[in-house]
Design goal:
This protein is of the alpha+beta class and 251 residues long. Helices cover 32% and strands 28% of the residues.
Length: 251
């Protein structure tokens, strides 16, 4: 597997409330992107706490995980992270209401298992095409599903940023988790909405299909989001399935 991580504050904001990274454990890899929310730097703290906790727990894993075991690990670990964030905000009134989105992927040579809460996203590019693996937990997505607005109207809806589900904002949270196979030369893209609000899926696919290196592809996606306005923080992880035993990474 090859992996690259990029995060950028954007052109407008002074604080980056996104956090993420990818973490090796033998030939297994955990990749996480979180987009924090809340005033007074609470979002920055929430996203960093969530990702750091998953990384810490990931390094304790000592055996290979089947897809079902990976699903259980993500469920247990993200649930525990939710409890930690929720209790922290309760104990620190200045951070009341803080929370974060999260997308997390466990990759082995043959499988990917992923979990998500919020409106950060995961895309898969394989021989079948370019597809969105996650479903936004947002108000506008519910309006689209219910037929109240079109997908095009949702792109510019004034309440687009209202989330129905986030990590750390409630005592209990529901996590979407599933597994699928992946093969050599497949790609995964994890990203915050600072990318997807500015770069459409056609542009995402074209960039990832280019012959450029993962690093150049990632840099180009960040540049495209900034060129389109860059009003939000932009964070992404690009993963490519390469021959077993080979791995590459860039910070």
């Amino acid at each position: 597997m090859a992996a690259v991580f990029r995060t950028d504050t954007g052109k407008i904001r002074t604080l980056n409330e996104d956090y993420g990274g990818f973490f090796w454990n033998g030939n297994r890899l955990l990749a996480v992107v979180a987009d924090g929310m809340g005033g007074h730097q609470a979002g920055e703290i929430a996203s960093e706490m969530a990702v750091s906790f998953l990384e810490e727990e990931w390094q304790k894993v000592t055996n290979d995980l089947t897809p079902s075991e990976a699903e259980q690990w993500l469920n247990n670990t993200i649930t525990e992270a939710n409890t930690k964030l929720f209790n922290f905000s309760k104990s620190n009134p200045e951070y009341s209401g803080m929370g974060t989105t999260i997308v997390a992927v466990i990759c082995t040579d043959s499988n990917v298992t992923f979990a998500h809460i919020g409106d950060s996203r995961i895309y898969l590019l394989n021989e079948s095409g370019f597809s969105l693996l996650t479903e936004d937990h947002s108000l506008v997505n519910e309006l689209v599903k219910n037929g109240q607005i079109t997908k095009e109207e949702a792109e510019h809806h004034p309440r687009k940023h209202i989330l129905l589900r986030a990590l750390g904002t409630e005592e209990n949270v529901t996590i979407d988790i599933r597994s699928l196979d992946w093969e050599e030369n497949d790609y995964l893209l994890l990203c915050s909405d600072g990318l997807t609000n500015k770069v459409d899926e056609r542009e995402l696919e074209q960039t990832i299909r280019s012959s450029e290196s993962l690093e150049k592809q990632a840099d180009e996606l960040i540049a495209m989001a900034n060129a389109a306005g860059g009003e939000d923080n932009i964070t992404l992880i690009l993963l490519k399935h390469v021959a077993f035993g080979k791995k590459g990474e860039s910070s």
